[in-house]
Design goal:
The structure is a single chain. By secondary structure, the protein is α+β, with helices and mostly antiparallel strands. It folds into two domains: about 1-205, Jelly Rolls, CATH 2.60.120.200; about 205-360. About 35% of the residues lie in helices and about 25% in strands. The strands form two sheets. Strands 1, 3, 4, 6, 11, 12, 13 and 15 form an eight-stranded antiparallel sheet that branches. Helix 3 packs antiparallel against helix 6.
Length: about 350
Amino acid sequence: MFQLILHHPYRRTAQAIDISGFDIHGSVHQPGTTFSEDGREEGSGSLGFTTPACRVKLRPAAVFKKLTALKVEMVVRLTALGQRRNLIEGDSSFAFFIHPDGSLWGTSKGRETPGGPLDFYGTNTAFPGGAVVPLNQWVTLTFMHDGFSTIQVAMDGNVVAARTDLYSPILPVGGYGVHIGNWPAGDSYPFVGDIDDVKIWRWDPDAAEAQFFSREPGPCWQGVFDELGKMARDPLGRRMLIQLLKCLAEKQRELIRAVRSMGPEAVQRNEHYTRRYRELWAAGELSQAPTQALVDEWLQWVAQLLGQQKLVDCLKGMAACYNEYGRMLGTRPGELLAQCDPEFHAYIEAMMVNPIIRSAQQ
C-alpha cells in the first residue's frame, strides 16, 4: 500500500540528501543546525536543532499534492520540552509533534463526517497513563494515516494511540510546503534535540495496476483496452468513463472506510483476506473452489461486521454507478473476455450467484 518517497539519513554532512529515488532533498536552515558524525549508532550521523529557526525545508515536489495515505518514521532524541515541538508538518495537510507535556500527537486536516467542518483531527497519548516521549534518549517515532479512517502513532514500533473514525484522506500539502523540525509558517514550534533519520511513505498509486497484472490476463485484454480507448477518444465517452471510474472508486472507499473504522482487529482480519485473495489472483486460480470459498467467507464476515444491509447498500451503490455511467460501454468488452479469458469470465459468473451479491442486484 505504501511507497517510500523520502529518506534522509543525515549520514555525511549537515545536508538533507534524499536517497529514496524521488530526489526530495531538503534545505537545512542555518545558523543553529549542527551536524554530528554519530546518531543513534556510531557513525550514523545526525542533525542537531538548537535555535528557534532550525528546520529542514523539503524541496517542493508533485508527490506532496497527492498523498492520500501517509506514513512517517523519524529517529529522534528530544532534549527539551516547555512548548510544542514539531517533528514534521505539511502545510494545511498533516502535523506530527510533541506536546509540551511530552505526549505524542498525530493529526491531519480533513473532516470527521461527510460535510463536516474542515479542521485538524487526529490522535494523541495525552491521557492518564499515556506514553510520553523521553528526554535525552533515542527513540523511533511513527505517524500513520491509512487514507481512509485511521490515524495512529507509535514509539519504537509499538502503537501508543489510534483513532479509527475519521473520514478524509491526507489532503494535498499547501504553499508553505513540508518542514522537518518546525512549523511551516514560522518559528513557533521548533524541535530541540537531534534527528538521525527521516522516512516518508505515501499511498502507492501503482499498487492496483501491479496487482492486476500479477496475473497473466491473456492477449485478449488488449482488445478490451482498445475498446475503452476508442470510447475515451470521444468527449462524451471519455466523460462517462471517467465518471464511472470515479463513482466506483468512491463506493469502494466508503466500504473500505467502514470496515477499517471498526478497529484494529477488523483491519487485521481484512488484511488477512486481502493478502490471501492477492495470492490466489496472482496464481490465476480465479474460478477454482479456494477463490470462491474465500470470497464467500470474506463477504459473510463483512456482512456480520457492518450488518448485511450496510454491505448490500454499498454493493447497490456500485451497481448504480454502472447503471448511470457504464451502460454505454456496450457488450463488446464482455464478449471479448468471455471468448479469450474464460477463467476471469467464470470467476465473474460465480460471483454473481453469491447470495449477498444477488440481493444487491435486486
